[in-house]
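Tutorial, part two.
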Amino acid sequence: MGKIVILTGAGISAESGLGTFRDEGGLWAQHRIEDVATPEGFARNPTLVHDFYNARRAQAAEATPNAAHAALARLQREHAGEVILVTQNVDGLHEAAGATALHMHGALEGALCAVCGSRWTAPLVMAPADPCPTCGRAATRPDIVWFGEMPYYMDEIAEHLESCDLFAAIGTSGQVYPAAGFVQEATYAGAHTVELNLADSDGSRLFAEHRVGPASRIVPLWVEDLLAG
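Running the prediction step on this input gives:
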């Protein structure tokens, strides 16, 4: 197997204690997406948005990588070909496990100035009055790609999808675009496709292969198969 592109979603971090959009009782269940994950929501109530991401940042800081994160880091180290890891997740668990990943939806550890576009490492707690260290304006926001905004690294990701031999999606819902369309791009390029998920997703029918179960169990087994093959 040559070049591998892997997309990960919230399902890979769920076993590390980080909730998905659909978890009952979690942070997302307490807020409307329109209020905390859109530019319009931030404009209406920046305090609410900062409080939400402060809570997510604190939660992520306490989380540790699970066996699925560790297995993907091992695949990057030991696979003879290129392994590109793309994640929809904004936590740093891939990096904590020793992997490198393209964070297409941004990262909780980042801060962004809405005026001048400067980026810097976010403190654990952010507030609307925080000044940008570059321009001094009180326009700092989490460096998170919200609904209605363009994800990061899209040109780079497209190039990888066009040249991969294997595309895998792990712990994704298959509902959020453009990531939900990656399987079709890889298929058009001639890649084998596999979905690893706790249950069938909205896009399961688009994959050639399926592995079902908890990420911490099925991902290490899949990596073992790849490295042994």
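The domain at 20-62+108-144 is CATH 3.30.1600.10 (SIR2/SIRT2 'Small Domain'). In part three we will examine how such features are distributed along the chain.
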